Amino acid sequence: MAKNRDNGVSPDSLSSIIGRDARFEGKLELNGSIRIDGHFKGTLTSKGSVTIGQNSEVRGNILADEIILGGTLHGNMVAKTRLVLEGSAKVTGDLATGMLVVGEGAQFNGQSGMGTTAVDELSKRLVSTLVSSFNTVKSPQKSDGIVLFEDDSVDETNRSKTKSQAARQSS
Predict the structure, then answer these.
(1) What does DSSP assign to residue 31?
(2) Burial of residue 85, with CB atoms counted within 10 A of its CB: 0-12 exposed, 13-18 middle, 19 or more buried
(3) How far is it, in rounded angstroms, from Cα 116 to Cα 141?
(4) 113 CB contacts (<8 Å, ≥6 apart)?
(5) The model's pTM
(6) In terms of Cα–Cα distance, which of 81, 153, 93, 151 is closest to 125?
(7) Higher pLDDT, 131 or 83
(8) Which of 21, 66, 80, 122 could, after both became Cys, cross-link 49 (CB 3.0–4.6 A)?
(9) Inter-residue contact 80 to 65 (CB < 8 Å)
(10) Domain count, the chain
(11) Are 90 and 72 in contact (CB under 8 A)?
(12) pLDDT, tens only, 15-58
């Protein structure tokens, strides 16, 4: 069990749980593993395993080393090493994995790919979709009580110009 030097968390240790009564919306990245028993909407990236309980619902994309799905997923999944669709799993979306295990009764509607090439291709597609959707946010916007801001990587020169222009316009 190798530990991550940055924070001491190993990919195979359970570091987060989204409980049955919880709802999460947004982007979540972690080095350890996570179990979701509630509702998740957004993008989830894990260096460990992602376990989605039987009564849970996920709407979004998941990129992880391993994914075990028992609930419902509307989105795409990339599991580098292994993806398990339990008998109660319902998937609408694409998947790519190194190894696929499908339990009797699992439902899957989408495209699938196996092996390193398929994993790399779907990973790149998901990442580029996330980046392009993030870059389309030009100014603060309010959506369902969440305020979204443009990328913090805007350099200080552009921020200074914007502040100067705003000051001149208000004069």
Answers:
(1) S
(2) buried
(3) 38
(4) 94, 95, 96, 97, 119, 121, 122
(5) 0.71
(6) 93
(7) 83
(8) 66
(9) yes
(10) 1
(11) yes
(12) 899 999 999 999 999 999 999 999 999 999 999 999 999 999 99
